[in-house]
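Example 3.2
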Amino acid sequence: MTEKPDKPKNEERQTGSRARSWKRALGVGFVLLIGAAIMIVSANRDQLSVRSDIYVSEQDEISVVSTLENQPPEILSLTAATDRIKPFDLCEIICEAFDPEGDELTYEWSASAGDIYGEGARIQWGSPISEGLYRISVVVKDGRGGRAEHSLPLKVKANRPPQITRLASDVEWLPEGGSALLRCEATDPDGDHITYEWSAPGGEFFGQGSSVIWLAPEESESYWITVTARDPYGGEASRAVPISVTPVEPPSISAMIVEPKKTSVFKTHGNSWTIFAGGSCTIECVVADGKAPFTYAWRVDAGDLHADGPVATWHAPNKRIGATIVVVVTDIDGSKSSASVLIYVETSACSACG
């Protein structure tokens, strides 16, 4: 007698039914997903075909990334050694730059005129012979495509030095250890600022600028007090005045009389004179008081000087210069006094007349 299988329980039937439903749902979902993918591929076939024609090599890709990441150098300053350069002269130009990534920098210089000497961050610029306003430029590169550039205006102009028009002392002689007040008057044709430097072979100065006090040493002698007036561009002029340090009063020089002799131009400026190049004049030393007889010792720092006692003849050189003519007068007791004359030599008649 054959045994019949047991009928499944209600719970088991329900479980089997649910399993079969999930399998059918998964199958349908898979079919739908495949169909959607086919439709997307078909719709974008042309676009995918175009993109497939673009080829970027590994080297180009690295180059693009490198360029995007590179930071260019920066120029911090571009300066010249002076703000006014003489014609046909050299001036140092310095470029200060840095690279944020520490790349090695190169410098390319150019100028609107003149010559460039050297390379790197520091060069020399040779100015042209003509006065005017010029420009120098620099391009700084980091070797990776980064660059920075800057330019600087440069003024080329001949410098005219200061001129001392007057140097005076409130006394002509002093006892040992005495003091004198000295004043200098100077002008600058270019309107530049003037500084003053005082010097003497002995004694001590108090103060600064165009007026100072000189304290005499404890030794009897005729001392020359020198002042040098300077502008910021290397121009300068010097002048000296004598002061006798002696226990007794020395000879008193009352005047230095200057007269033109062979010159078409001769003009006085304060206690100085202007003469045309190649001209000549006479200088007479007048002693007002003292113990005669007197002796006269003359000297000059430029030109030719011929002297006979209290009168000397001076011949100007053929170049633009300032000349100081000095006389030392000695009395019978050996006491000395000194005096000087400053004459400017001009090569242009217009300058001499000015």
